[in-house]
Amino acid sequence: MRQLTEPDFLGEVGSQQDLYTKSLQVIQSQGFVSPQALSTLKWSLAMHTTAPWIQAHYHLYDSTILPDRVSKGGFDSNCRVWVDWYDRQVCTVSKLEAIVAGGLSEFAKK
Hey, how many other C-beta atoms are within 10 angstroms of the C-beta on 47? Predict the structure, then answer.
């Protein structure tokens, strides 16, 4: 699925229809969806069935998680992708790897 977000793949996309067609080709070619489930996937995309679920998660994040993290201090709002590790924000894979390699029990202590 990583292929769908690669700059080379996205650079070849000329329109929304093109994105839809090429994405379905990748999904099918890599065996992520059986031929029987393809029509259900197409219907689900057309009906935007996941949109309410995604919106609910964004609302939860914006109204609950983010304010909680900011109030605890030490929150970097410039960190676009992060992991909550025992109420601590970890912004990079390398830092997370170092924490895990160093031992989980010590980091979990407050």
Answer: 9
| Residue 89 neighbours by CB under 8 Å, 6+ apart | 69, 74, 75, 76, 79, 82, 83
Residues 22, 9: contact at Cβ < 8 Å?
yes
**pTM exceeds 0.70 for this model:** no
Q: Can you state the angle between helices 35-47 and 16-29, rounded to 10 degrees?
A: 150
- pLDDT tens-digit map of 90-110: 999 999 988 888 876 665 555
Question: What are the beta bridge partners of residue 84?
Answer: 89
**Residue 104 vs residues 16, 61, 97: alpha-carbon distances, Å:** 44, 26, 11
**Quick one: 27 exposed, middle or buried, by C-beta within 10 A (0-12, 13-18, 19+)?**
middle
Which amino acid, one-letter code, is at 81? V
Q: What are the residue boundaries of the structural domains of the chain, listed by start?
A: 2-49, 52-108
- Helix or strand run (H / E) with residue 84: strand 83-84
